Amino acid sequence: MSTLPKVAWIGLGIMGSPMSENLVKAGYDVTGHTLERDKLDRLAAAGGTAAASVAEAVRDADVIVTMVPASPQVEAVAYGPDGILENARRGALLIDMSSITPQTSVDLAAAAKDKGIRVLDAPVSGGEAGAIEAVLSIMVGGDQADFDEAKPLFEALGKTIVRCGPHGSGQTVKAANQLIVAVNIQACAEAVVFLEKSGVDLAAALDVLGGGLAGSTVLARKKDNFLNRDFRPGFRIDLHHKDMGIVTDAARTVGAVLPVGAVVAQLVAGLRAQGDGGLDHSALLRAVERLSGAQV
């Protein structure tokens, strides 16, 4: 019998499916629930167990991980008679790895404490590739003792794992991450259009840029997307639009001014309004192309 904690995993999307499967590979007993039958079948095929409801998934779990799109979905699975807080056992550890508002995380931790359930907010960065390869960056908010307990589980999912402070801190750092990523993708997209219109060999240019100060994880990860106009979703524009809303609202609350971030947030919103919300965020290239006169 495994001595590892029993895990309930709620949310088996682009990120959640490979992450839960990596826990199975690491020897964890994982029971998952999501709304899509094919995702449940995928988890079962990988060695996990499918549950028909949140309540069923969490009832016997030592650790509960949620990985859903946004604050409303976290609240939907956490609260109510069929939710996590009403059905998890006292002493369980709830790890929310979704990207949500810091205040939602703070409120969830307070509500869970009344039920004897501990909470960490632990959003991630690295996209679908990072989830598959188990090299995610994981930024955590919550108590040190709970972080220490969860560290082995995090190590099966990522490589850079840092406690950033109390409840909500992980979400604040994730918001900053999404600001940097969006601005970086926008800069790369503008460079691609500039290079192509100048008649430069784009592949060669991106190679040499990647080796200098302009190099970044974003450029390395998204270079092929730009070259091949491959915008199959690894991280959807819809979700980055949500995240840019989080960071701009949070910045306003603390009095931080984000002039470049505000412009990029509007460009993301514009791309979404043009029907590209389901594409990968590297599709910001399409927005720059349209502004530069291309028919996209």
Radius of gyration of CA atoms, rounded to a whole number: 20 Å
For the report, how would you describe the main beta sheet?
Answer: 6 strands, parallel
Number of strands: 9
Strand order of the largest sheet: 3-2-1-4-5-6
Helix content: 40-55%
Percentage beta strand: 5-15%
What is shown here, in short?
With 296 residues, the protein is an alpha/beta fold. The protein contains 14 helices and nine strands. It has a six-stranded parallel sheet, sandwiched between helices. A three-stranded mixed sheet has the order 7-8-9.
In terms of topology, how is this protein built?
Elements: E1 7-10, H1 16-25, E2 30-33, H2 37-46, E3 49-50, H3 54-58, E4 63-66, H4 71-78, H5 84-87, E5 93-96, H6 102-113, E6 118-121, E7 124-125, H7 127-133, E8 136-141, H8 144-155, E9 158-165, H9 169-197, H10 202-210, H11 217-228, H12 237-254, H13 259-276, H14 284-291
Parallel strand pairs: 1-2, 1-4, 2-3, 4-5, 5-6, 8-9
Antiparallel strand pairs: 7-8
Give a verbal description of the structure.
46% of the residues are buried. The chain has helices spanning 16-25, 37-46, 54-58, 71-78, 84-87, 102-113, 127-133, 144-155, 169-197, 202-210, 217-228, 237-254, 259-276, 284-291; strands spanning 7-10, 30-33, 49-50, 63-66, 93-96, 118-121, 124-125, 136-141, 158-165. The mean pLDDT is 97. The protein has 296 residues and is of the alpha/beta class. 55% of the residues lie in helices and 13% in strands. The strands form two sheets. It has a six-stranded parallel sheet with strand order 3-2-1-4-5-6, sandwiched between helices. Belongs to the HIBADH-related family. This is 2-hydroxy-3-oxopropionate reductase.
